[in-house]
Design a protein that fits this description.
Layout (H helix, E strand, L loop, with lengths): L8 E5 L11 H15 L3 E5 L15 E3 L5 H13 L8 E3 L4 H13 L2 H4 L3 E2 L4 H8 L1 H11 L6 E4 L2 H11 L3 E5 L9 E3 L5 H11 L5 E5 L5 E9 L5 E9 L12 E3 L6 H17 L5 E9 L6 E7 L4 H10 L3 H9 L26 E7 L20 E7 L2 H11 L17 H9 L5 H10 L4 H8 L3 H17 L9 H9 L4 H8 L4 H10 L5 E4 L13 E5 L13 E5 L10 H16 L3 E6 L14 E4 L4 H11 L3 E3 L4 H5 L2 H6 L9 H8 L1 H10 L7 E4 L2 H11 L3 E5 L9 E3 L2 H14 L5 E5 L5 E10 L3 E9 L12 E3 L6 H17 L3 E11 L2 E8 L6 H8 L3 H9 L17 E7 L20 E7 L5 H8 L8
Parallel strand pairs: 1-2, 1-4, 2-3, 4-5, 18-21, 19-20, 19-22, 20-21
Antiparallel strand pairs: 6-9, 7-8, 7-9, 10-11, 10-13, 11-12, 12-15, 13-14, 15-16, 17-18, 23-26, 24-25, 24-26, 27-28, 27-30, 28-29, 29-32, 30-31, 32-33
Helix pairs in contact: 1-10, 1-11, 5-6, 7-8, 13-14, 14-16, 15-16, 18-19, 20-30, 24-25, 26-27
């Protein structure tokens, strides 16, 4: 069936601010869907309250509504499209791209009769299907009816029903609340004494106060299938995904592998059949679906865990893993096309009605941020706790696993062999039994210390095949230690590289050699990294997409062009302090380069983001943003330069190495960035410019710190140099607390220096963002924080433009911004943080890079600031070439959003270390707004040390 021509205008519901359990994979899906519908000549409107994402940018939607995600907001938009002659009436709504938030909102609007009232058709899913899949009892009953196995379970709406269910089923149990996301409110109950508290939490978490009490199949294997179905009832399986971690850990917190590695063909065929049966049973709709199964490792019995009738966290991963753009195709299916009528996006010559075949392995490893949540329960379970993830591609599982470890940004050079292993056998065995963020590394440590594989399997329930693969690394390490760098046989060196060992790991294992020496020896032996294309069809048809991963073989498939080109370094996995706003900046960097006729090359390893969509860059390298990988891509591509300003601290950390090797950094030079990062040099500069700054000192141990603190005066702010998101910062008020803080910091970050600043108690805080082209400086925006100094800028409510600062203060902020931009010879972006006390303006820090706030200001003022900055960095334009017109009426408030519900045991106090996971934008007409007045009243409440 060709497309439904009655649909001319579609509303896409976004997923709102980033929270744990619902991150930028939905921004990726929503962006893809919007572009897919626009290709069909359909007008796309987007509602989403998240200012940091590319989805809410003018390059994605025709009409973007940055409004709270409520039914009232939707009604206002639908009415506006009826009343305004310039806007087309909205014909349909697509709610499957915005995670659980969008689905729940769609159901609520349906119950309130909104879609019916405005004549809007729900596409991509059936409202009845949402009910069948989200209501745990309906889902269980449906599975029983169609003959698909489920775990024994009972539904409960009260304490009494819950206790009866537990008595009938027996322990261990799992509690699953209805209509929640990321496992919120769910959990395991191993014994009777824990049941009451777990049941209460589950009943409270469910919006309908309903939970499923289910027999826990702990230790079973867990799998997911990604499906697509068209209105002709054709169903295809895009990808099978296997969890490395067995049942008991939320899939968002599990290491996952695609395609499934340890699944027998018989079991896979049975799973396929059941998944197709399930998708057909939940309703008549065309779109994407994610199904989760559990398999008993003893006899291959299969039970269904759940089905999500929307794109999911895993479908972003599956899209990147296979090169099959699930959201893009799902959007076309939603408007009526059948699979065989859509062009295959990769080959351009075959149809989309095919199942991808992979000749490589994908590994996803989650990224946690427990260091931000003091006192959090770090054990992994049914509630998702990770804040981001990395994906790696290799020819084998073990190569991909090591590349994933290099991508995580936790200072690891691969899976172990980097001097950071744990040697405490009691801690290791406890960590294997109680899984946390580091269990993968502890498995390797246990093997290195000689713990038998069978003992590890018994305690972790991880499939023996995976453990054998890791054990092979230990054997290779033992063998490597027999050699010195100059007598390693060429074939053995090749094996090490094929198993994912980085040069720095090899150097560490050999001892007394450097990474560069290993690199040079490898090159001398002719062992070079080659690049393979991700082509979805195992090279059966020629692919047209420039999407690559590296491995060690003979043939290189990435042929560099002789065009002028630039590499954009991405920001790696999402984490607190470095989130989706840097992906937004990277996408604009790519677009600016392409618009300027320069080939745009992207390097990044985050599967959730738009920057790693194969349609965004001219060439995408899905690789770790890790020195060895970046270096070899640069050697192959020979770009005119590398952009490090847009990828947050991840990219910035490479600036020094690039600079040392004479590789051009596009925009501000490394030397000038280093002045801003180095507290001593930066303070000397401020002194020279006659700009006030808080008194400070530098210490290398606790004794020095106490002397410095007494000189600058308490309270003091203690922090390590070169960090992002306030990592390790604290405010201390006496010698005793200072000593503890310094000892802890130097223990966590050995070899670092500690900065001690006088803390301006009860000061106001503000920040400015600006763009400089080396001659002129344009102030992008100045924001005033509602909370006082001492709360990290990422956790503060901030108002654009400033609302209470006297004119002489804002004039000083502007003057200092221009002075610093010129003194540092900034080419591109600059963010400056200020503290204001008694109307005196102090500069706290300056960051010559894209900040967390530029995307927010760009949305609020409706000016493409990053695009402008990128063109200036590339040297193709000057500020005077742009006409900048700000379009904000009233004020815009940046609202931080926290994910504390995942850590009920953590205190909600705020301080200099950032804790928010995302943000929303809210527009107000004036300062009489009741919402703003309440915020202003509560402003100091959560301030802590």
């Amino acid at each position: 069936m060709p497309k439904d021509t009655s649909i001319r205008s579609v509303l896409i519901i976004g997923s709102g601010p980033i929270i744990i359990g619902q991150a930028c994979e939905f921004d990726y899906a929503g962006s893809q869907a919007a572009l897919s519908l626009k290709e069909e000549g359909i007008t796309v409107s987007i509602i989403n309250s998240n200012p940091a994402t590319i989805m809410t940018d003018k390059v994605i939607g025709d009409h973007v509504y940055l409004r709270p995600l409520t039914v009232d907001s939707i009604e206002v938009i639908l009415q506006e499209h009826i009343d305004s002659p310039d806007l087309p009436k909205i014909d349909a709504v697509l709610p499957t791209m915005g995670g659980q938030t969008a689905l729940n909102l769609c159901v609520e609007a349906s119950e309130r009769g909104v879609w019916e009232k405005y004549g809007v058709k729900v596409i991509g899913v059936d409202v009845a299907a949402i009910e069948k899949t989200e209501n745990r009892e309906c889902f269980r009953q449906l599975m029983v009816d169609i003959g698909v196995g489920v775990a024994p379970s009972k539904i409960a709406n009260s304490f009494l029903e819950g206790k009866e269910a537990a008595q009938d089923i027996g322990y261990p149990l799992v509690i699953r609340p209805s209509y929640t996301l990321g496992g919120s409110g769910g959990g395991f109950v191993h014994k009777k004494e824990e049941f009451d508290a777990a049941l209460k939490r589950g009943l409270e978490a469910s919006p309908t106060h309903e939970v499923l009490v289910e027999k826990a199949v702990l230790g079973w294997k867990e799998y997911e299938l990604e499906l697509l179905r068209d209105s002709n009832d054709n169903v295809i399986i895009i990808c099978s995904i296997e969890n490395f971690d067995p049942m008991g850990i939320h899939t968002g917190d599990s290491i996952t592998v695609a395609p499934a590695m340890t699944l027998s063909d018989r079991c896979y065929q049975e799973m396929r059949n059941q998944a197709i049966k399930m998708m057909r049973a939940i309703g008549t709709f065309a779109g994407g679906c994610n199904v989760q199964f559990s398999v008993n490792p003893d006899n291959d019995d299969i039970i269904a865990i759940e089905i999500n009738p929307r794109v999911s966290r895993s479908s972003a991963l599956a899209s990147k893993a296979t090169g099959y753009p699930i959201a893009k195709i799902a959007a076309k299916l939603a408007i009526g096309y059948n699979l065989d009528e859509i062009e295959n996006q990769i080959t351009k010559t075959t149809s989309a009605y095919f199942e991808p075949t992979l000749d490589y392995v994908i590994v996803k490893v989650p990224r946690w941020n427990f260091d931000k949540f003091k006192g959090a329960n770090k054990e992994l379970g049914l509630q998702m706790k990770s804040v981001g993830e990395v994906m790696a591609i290799g020819r084998t599982f073990i190569e991909a696993l090591q590349k994933a470890c290099q991508s995580l940004e936790i200072g690891r050079a691969g899976l172990g062999a980097d001097g950071r292993q744990n040697r405490n056998i009691n801690e290791i065995m406890d960590g294997l039994e109680h899984a946390s963020w580091n269990r993968l590394f502890l498995i390797k440590d246990a093997m290195t210390m000689g713990v038998p594989l069978e003992s590890i399997r018994k305690v972790t329930k991880i499939d023996k095949w995976f453990l054998t693969q890791i054990q092979e690394l230990v054997a290779l390490e033992v063998e490597l230690k027999r050699y010195s760098l100059n007598n390693i046989p060429q074939d053995f060196f090749m094996t090490l590289k094929q198993k994912g060992f980085s040069d720095i790991q090899i150097a560490w294992l050999l001892g007394n050699v450097t990474e560069d020496e290993v690199y040079d020896r490898r090159k001398a032996l002719g062992i070079n990294r080659v690049y393979k294309m991700v082509d979805t069809c195992a090279a059966e048809f020629p692919a047209q997409t420039p999407y690559y991963y590296s491995t060690f073989e003979e043939e290189n498939e990435s042929i560099p062009s002789d065009k002028k080109k630039v590499i954009v370094l991405g920001s790696g996995p999402n984490r607190i302090g470095q989130g989706i706003e840097f992906d937004y900046s990277c996408v604009h960097g790519l677009l600016a380069a392409k618009e300027s006729g320069i080939e745009a090359i992207m390097i990044n390893c985050n599967p959730e983001t738009v920057s790693t969509d194969f349609n965004m860059a001219d060439k995408l390298y899905f690789e770790p943003v890790f020195w060895e990988h970046v270096r070899e891509i640069i050697e192959l591509e020979k770009p005119m330069g590398v952009i490090v300003q847009l990828g947050g601290q991840t990219a910035l950390k490479m600036a020094e190495k690039l600079s040392e090797r004479g590789i051009k950094i596009i925009g501000t030079s490394f030397e000038n960035m280093d002045i801003a990062e180095d507290r001593g040099r930066f303070s000397d500069l401020l002194k020279e410019l006659e700009i006030p700054y808080p008194r400070y000192g530098v210490a290398e141990n606790a004794e020095e710190a106490i002397v410095v603190a007494n000189e600058v005066g308490y309270p003091v702010l203690v922090r390590p140099s070169y960090v992002l998101g306030g990592q390790g910062m604290s405010i201390v008020i006496n010698d005793e607390d200072l000593e503890k803080a310094v000892v802890k910091l130097l223990g966590d970050l050995p070899g670092n220096r500690v900065l001690i600043d006088h803390f301006l108690d009860r000061a106001e805080e503000a920040e400015s963002d600006s763009i400089s082209d080396g001659e002129d400086v344009h102030i992008v925006g100045m924001m005033e924080h509602i909370e006082p100094a001492g709360i990290h800028s990422g956790d503060s409510f901030a108002v654009l433009p400033t609302f209470s600062l006297p004119e002489k203060v804002t004039a000083a902020m502007e003057e200092y911004s221009i002075k610093i931009a010129k003194a540092l010879n900034v080419i591109g972006l600059l963010n400056i943080q200020f503290a204001i006390k008694d109307e005196k303006v102090y500069v706290i820090e300056a960051n010559p890079r894209a900040s967390r706030t530029v995307p927010f200001i760009a949305k609020a003022y409706d000016v493409p600031y990053i695009n402008i900055a990128a063109k200036i960095m590339l040297g193709v334009a000057k500020l005077k070439d742009f006409t900048i017109v700000r379009k904000l009426k009233g004020y815009a408030i940046k609202e931080p959003v926290f994910s504390y519900d995942k850590f009920p045991e953590v205190a909600k106090e705020l301080g200099p270390e950032m804790k928010s996971t995302g943000e929303a934008i809210r527009f107000i007409k004036d300062l009489e707004d009741p919402y703003f007045r309440q915020l202003y009243k509560d402003k100091s409440m959560y301030l802590s040390k």
